[in-house]
Amino acid sequence: MTYSTHLQALREAILDMDLQGIADVARAAMDAGVDPRDAITEGMVPGMVEVGRKFEEGEYFLSELVVAGEVMKDGMAVIEPYLGTGTGEEQVKAKAVIATVEGDYHDIGKNIVVTLLGVQGFDVIDMGMDVPAASIVEEVRTHHPVVVGLSALLSTTMARMGEVIEALKIAGLRDEVKVILGGTPVTPAYADSIGADHCALNAIEGVHKCVQWLGAVQEDR
Ligand code: B12
Hints:
Layout: H1 3-15, H2 22-31, H3 36-56, H4 62-79, E1 95-100, H5 108-119, E2 123-126, H6 133-143, E3 147-151, H7 159-170, E4 178-182, H8 188-193, E5 198-199, H9 203-220
The structure holds cobalamin.
């Protein structure tokens, strides 16, 4: 199998909701030396995008979304150990608080970000999904993270991101942290309009941004 057929097999395993087969497909890709980041972003994620399209067109139903989500999680469990643990040089352990906003039960993308930030040496506080703004503020007050990452997949819950930023301002904590947004409905224009620092194109670009911010913080010390 070639590099691209492994990526194709991962994409199809998600699309076909292959709960039985995904672990083998993912293991085969890792054994063949496929970059774990490519396996996620060029293999499984496009499969999820396709699942979303089929749902939109009425070909798939909610049950299929649920199973596809499970398949993605099982694939991630195989691939995650291959992501390594960063360069080993950066022992700073800056903190990052990450959450899916209140009312939103999508956590697959957020979990990828959590994993990749961990690989980059961040001490990640993963608050899970359906997290109210007040809880996020409390976590920032307690842990003083460099970054707050917010995820939303629904156009309705996206508005909650603005509430988090307002709550941080009211608590006097907004200037302490960088706020990065992610999730399909979120746009740079929306991020600007609510005063976020960045809107991630995808997990890898977003994590790259967090690493840049961390570098700037370390230079200031
Ligand atoms: C799987 C799925 C579900 C699963 C979620 C399982 C789980 N544990 O996450 C379940 C079945 C629970 C679900 C439920 C619903 N869903 Co749904 N779901 C999806 C689906 C198919 C895939 C989402 C996904 O995981 N993608 C893969 C990940 C890797 O991509 P991602 O989340 O975008 O994340 C990437 C980037 O955005 C980024 N990122 C994400 N977050 C963050 C955060 C930070 C800080 C950073 C830096 C980056 C980052 O990194 C990731 C990798 O690059 C999408 C379709 C789609 N194309 O998105 C619909 C979709 C999001 N769902 C949708 C809907 C309508 C629903 C329901 C309302 C359905 C219903 N009628 O009940 C419910 C809502 C439940 C709720 N209250 O949240 C719609 C949303 C429409 C809209 N614009 O509002 C979509 C778009 C489907 C569609 N086309 O209609 N869903």
